[in-house]
Amino acid sequence: MPKYQKPKGTRDLDENTTFKFEVIRSLFVAISRFLGYGHVEIPIFEKTNLFERSTGESSEIVTKQMYKFQDKKNREFALRPEGTPGLIRAAIENNWLNSHNGDKFSYFGPFFRYERPQKGRYRQFFQLGAESIGSNNVESDAESIYLLSFLLKELKIKHVIKLNSLGEKEERLRYIESLQQWLTNNKIKIAKEDCINIEKNPLRILDSKKSATVKGIKQAPKIHEFWSRETSDRFKKLTGLLQAANVNYQVDEFLVRGLDYYTSTVFEASGHDGAQDAYGGGGRYNDLISELGGKNTPAIGFACGVDRIASALKFDQIKPFCIFIPLGEKCREKAFGIISKMWSNSVSVKPYWNESNLGKALKRANSIGSKYVIVFGEKEMQNNTLLVKNMKNGNQKEIPINMSSIMSALGLDE
Ligand code: HAM
User: What is the pLDDT of residue 209?
Assistant: First the structure.
């Protein structure tokens, strides 16, 4: 057992994973810019009461999962468990909304939740998010869902968008009352652990993963039975827009999501079979901005788990283009001059500064799939040459030490 280990639920990301993160981040920033979202960065900790007020005092995130701390002046802070509250706080505080009655923002970074670690669920994880502020028109719901689906499509990740509406406040309240009644009368049909939520947060029971509940809850009343005419029409319009835009969606009458601020449309992207945890999710939150002290402004957005998206990507390991093997101290010294010249000519090359055994070095270069290897030993130094080996076909040639010969031997001279 090593003396020091990483905190439980955190990850050390290897170079292949950070490469995938980079691809996801740059694609997301580019695509969201393309749709008119500006990219912002906000602090990773905020005052605790910001999350209590927005994510919700009865939500699992606030009651159980926040990393809270006091600073030296006893101020209460929390590591951000999600991005929406901080983004809205920043938009209000910096007047990002006033000039044009709303705007659209994207963000990317680390988030923290004290959860039971398992595959795809960490205590430090990364999210990318997009918030569209200022419109309550159903087209902006369609746009937000389109962006999520577009990103996953571009990354070649098969997915389905699960879709539901929580309706307007009165519809929701009537539904909660009816659900509570049903749950109280049918406790026997749901898992014991879920019963504690009947009083506090009955909607949470709908997306319980406990098999007894999943089975039993199917008979419970469904929210669409409580939708008003307007809510039904809006939902129908939304599904029409998504269909026309070729978004693969599926109505899920039990989708409620675990954060308190949602109103109306909610959605989640999950794997094709729907079995695995969600890649991302979001919804409309029309009351949050005024609750946090801003003007009454409607908004909708989503966030995706970058760790989960990255693990679904089927890229090859990143392979170095060229490995440079200087053998011994004198060769190393001269090699640095050659290598730095290659770098300044935009040739990607990875030197092995610590290998004096050629056989071992070649084996190592081969195992990581390098395309070329350049060997620079005593013999090459005497001849003022480099030995360039093509690792794919095994061909090798000795070349003079100058950039044009190096470029040509590496196939970079076209
Ligand atoms: P959320 O559903 O809590 O929503 O999180 C969004 C995504 O973050 C999840 O679907 C999942 O992929 C990822 N995620 C959450 N917790 C973890 C974890 N412990 N480990 C790994 N990945 C995780 C929100 O956070 C809302 N702020 C989304 C939103 C934006 N709604 C409106 N605007």
Answer: 82
Phi, psi of 45 (to 5 degrees): -130, 150
Distance from the alpha carbon of residue 198 to the mean position of ligand 1, in angstroms:
24
Closest residue by Cα to atom 18, ligand 1, is 121
CA of 258 to the centre of ligand 1 (A): 10
**Strand, coil or helix: what is 48?**
helix
In this prediction, residue 316 has a pLDDT band, given cuts at 50, 70 and 90, of: low
What is d(CA 103, CA 105) in angstroms, rounded to the nearest whole number? 7
Residue 322, pLDDT > 80, answer yes
Task: Note the pLDDT tens digit of each residue in 46-104.
Answer: 999 999 998 888 788 888 899 999 999 999 999 999 999 999 999 999 999 876 667 99
Long-range Cβ pairs for the range 271-274 (8 Å, 24+): 271/158, 271/159, 271/160, 271/312, 272/158, 272/159, 272/160, 274/160, 274/162, 274/250
DSSP conformation class of 7: P
CA angle 258, 285, 127 (to 5 degrees): 60
Task: Extract the tokens encoding 295.
Answer: 């003007």
* Ligand 1 atom nearest to CA at 280: 10
| Contact status, residue 84 vs residue 54, Cβ threshold 8 Å | yes
Q: Ligand 1 in contact with 164 (CB < 6 A)?
A: no
Mutate to test the pocket of ligand 1, among 88, 132, 308 (most ligand atoms within 8 A of CB): 308
Q: Looking up tokens 């050659």, which residue turns up?
A: 338
The pTM assigned to this predicted structure is: 0.89
Ligand 1 atom 11 nearest Cα: 305
Token digits of residue 104? 């659209």
Q: Which domains does the chain have, with CATH numbers?
A: 15-167+227-312 (3.30.930.10), 322-409 (3.40.50.800)
What's the CA gap between 358 and 389, in Å, rounded?
A: 13
Answer whether 278 contacts ligand 1 (Cβ < 6 A).
Answer: yes
Q: In this predicted structure, what is the pLDDT of residue 407?
A: 95
Residue spans of beta strands (DSSP E) within 19-155: 38-39, 45-47, 68-70, 76-79, 104-112, 124-133
Q: How far apart are CA 55 and CA 194, in angstroms?
A: 21
DSSP code for 162: E
